[in-house]
Each structure stands twice: as structure tokens, then as C-alpha cells.
Amino acid sequence: MTAIDAYIESHRQAFVDDLAELLHIPSVSADSRHAGDTRRAAEWMVSRFKQLGLATELVETAGHPLVVAESPPVPGKPVALVYGHYDVQPPDPLGEWTTPPFEPSIRHGNIYARGATDDKGQMLTHVKSVEAWIKSGQPLPLQVKFLIEGEEEVGSVHLEPFVAENRQRLACDCVVISDCGQFAPGVPAITYGLRGIAYYELKLIGPRQDLHSGTFGGGVTNPAGVLVSMLAALKDADGRIQIPGFYDDVIPLSVAERQQFRDLPFDEADFKRQLVVDGLSGEAGHTTLERRWARPTCDINGLTSGYQGEGAKTVLPARASAKFSFRLVPNQDPAKISSALKTFLEVRVPPGIRMELVDHHGAPGVVVRLDSPYIRAAAAAIEAGFGSPPVYIREGGSIPIVNTFARELDADVLLLGWGQNDDNTHSPNEKFSLADYQRGILASAYLWQELAKLPA
Ligand code: BES
Ligand code: MN
Ligand code: MN
User: Fold this and answer.
1) Of 8, 53, 75, 445, which is most buried, counting CB atoms within 10 Å of its CB?
2) Beta-carbon neighbour count of residue 87 at 10 Å?
3) pLDDT (tens digit, 9 = 90+) per residue, 94-141?
4) Would you call 152 a catalytic residue per the annotation?
5) Which member of 37, 118, 131, 152 is catalytic?
6) What gap in Å lies between CA 211 and CA 209, rounded to an integer?
7) Is the pTM of this model over 0.90?
8) Cβ atoms of 372 and 454 closer than 8 Å
């Protein structure tokens, strides 16, 4: 590994420059005004894979394109499939960024930009580690395939059928994903569980147009009032979701796993300081880590109704809408949640209001087995790259395609996150530590070596 280590050390700046180039491209998948930029990011990925001499293809879908690339097969060795995403979340609210979201800026050892950690920076660590092997004159010790998509942040709807229809092409022994986090600075982690998601938009339509709230208020049903009471009905004071049947398929946490969570060095006071809140709340009877990682929940993601301008306006709004989503745990089925939710809401629509419920996307949660030689290889690689062995954690976010990989490819999934909890993913001032970027590249380079020690 010495030549590879040396390449990684001497290319520190070049790796950062290349990441900055990708971060310049505003590949916001949710916003159709950025469709051209999103394609540009895909083309940028294609150019990088081609520079490494990999067999590369830009695959069109009904949405944003996929990028598929692979190094030559190595007989007798396992095959690793790297999954990542080149799309990013919208950068709003723009006013809260210290430097513009698509003009990457380096401060205090971090690179700031939308997508810095989620997922451009983390995903590139695997491209750069492959570069380090190839450019330092060592053929990769196993075959590495890449599948990089542009729709992760909008639910991976077009990737799903592609994986099912290309099982042969994507065939592998393990899937490597760096799109989550370490436990804390200096405490790298292997993630063995992610929550699923079910995302909705509720629209309530009242009178033909906005009305004078004095002339009409009290006599006409106000959609904003109905919206808040419908949303409030979703949870009780103990943070329990009130939709009948919602918890039917939830597998309770075992005593042993609850103890494992308690054994992690989690400091609630630090957590509150980081968020600048003076208290926390959630489902009664569960700790903060349990609530965030392994219990289902419901959050309102956006609310729209009535007058938002300066000063007061006495208006009875004609419409009100909310975006909200449930985080699900493994074994809960998003389709079942959708039909139970619909029934729950429909009976709460009063006269004078029409309801529309848009089902945006859903994905089940996942828990992967830890008793696997691939996990042991990843742990050794992380220790070599980061200088400490990983802890084993679950996380609360969702990567919709993970279940599909496990099912269609029958492969072990390695969730190796290089990010930090305070990286501001989906928030203003998203960042990625350049030290974590460099250590991630090193760990990834060691991962290829560790995996190649295993039989195919
Ligand atoms: N990288 C995240 C998922 C993630 C975040 C995993 C934190 C573990 C910890 C991913 O890009 C993401 O944001 N996923 C969405 C999925 C949704 C849009 C379908 C999410 O979790 O909201
Ligand atoms: Mn991500
Ligand atoms: Mn994300």
C-alpha cells in the first residue's frame, strides 16, 4: 500500500480541487429549473470515470440519468458495487448561507457547499481511492463497479426498476455506500440500520378565493384552521402516532440493542448545545438515540397558507397545504401507511373543505447483518484510514434503494459514513471536513485491499 498511501498524501489538494469543481454544479434534483445542471453533474461523473479508464455509461431514465462504470473483472475475487448520488437538496433558505451554496468555500478545514457531505464529497472518496490504486500503478485487487444516481433526494423512483432489470450487470458480493455519518469526531462508525420514509402533501381547498375574515369569518370553514387540527391529530401528547394500525408492524427494540445504544458515548447536553435548544421531546419511554434511529415518527416539513407578507392582513385563506412525512422502521410498509393515513384524514374533513392527498414517495427501513466477513473487512479498513476502530450504530435518515439492493442483488450492504452530525445536511452552510474527506479516501483504498483478501 505504500505507493497508494503516497499518492493519496501527495494528491490532497488535487482531490479537494476536483470536489470543488463538482460542488459548483447546482444539481438540485427536485427543481426542474436545474434539470440541465443535474445532467451536467452526471456528465462530470462520466468524464471522471473515463479518465480512470473504466467502462462507463450514462444511462438515461425517465428522470435524471444514472452513471454506471466498472473496472475490469478480477477472477477469484469478490466484486464491490459503490452506490452514491450526485444530486443535492435545494439550498433554501439562501439568505442563511455565509457563502453561496454553489460557490464552494474552505474555512477552518471544512469545505462549505450544498452537497459537500451529502453526497458529493463522501461519494467521491471511492472514486479517488480507485484513482489512487490505478494511477500509482497497481491494478485494483478486485472488480469495483459504480452506480451513481441523480434522484436519491427525490426518492430514487427510476433507479428501482433499473436495479431489478440489471441484476446481472450489477451483480456483486457487497454494496458500499458512504452517505451517512460517523458517530462523532474521532469516532468512525459502521451503520447497520436506516429508517424508511413515507412522504405526503396534504392540500385543503375552501372557498373560491381568499375572503375578508371579518365579513366571512365564523361562518365559512377556514382551511388553515382545519389543516392545523388535522396535523395536530396525528400525534398525542406522548408523541405516539394516532393512525389506527400504525404500530402494528413495528418490531420493538430488544433489551440488548437498547443497552448497545446506551453504551455509546452520546452526550445529550452537547447535542442540545449543538442545536441551540434548551430541551428535547419525542415518544415517551424512549431515549433520544432510540427516537432518532429506531422508532417511527412524523414530522411536518412545510406549511403554506394565508398572508405571509409584512404587517397584518385580515384574510380568510382559500387554501392551506402541508408537506409532512413519517420515518418508518424496518418491517413497516409505506403502502400500508398510505392507506391508513388516507382513511384517518378523510373522516376529519369538515363540510366546505375539499381534500387532496399527494403521495410523494415511500421506502422501507433496513437493518443489515453485522456478522459478515465484508463488515469485518470494512472495520479493518476504517481503522487503517481513521486511526480508530468503528462503533456500530443505526441512523435515522433514509436511503430508499438500500432494500432493493439487498433483495435484488442478494449482497451485503456496507454503510460507511464519513460525515459528521453537524455537517448541516439539507440545511444552510452544509460542510464536509477535509480531514474526513482525506481519511475517507484512505479508508476506501484499504477497503479494496481488505475485500480482496476474501474469497469470491
Ligand atoms: N444521505 C441521506 C440519508 C441519511 C442521512 C442517512 C443521515 C443517514 C443519516 C440521503 O441523501 C437523504 O437525505 N435521504 C432522504 C431520502 C428521501 C428524500 C427519500 C432522507 O432521508 O430524507
Ligand atoms: Mn445522501
Ligand atoms: Mn440527503
Assistant:
1) 445
2) 27
3) 999 999 999 999 999 999 999 999 999 999 999 999 999 999 998 999
4) yes
5) 152
6) 6
7) yes
8) no
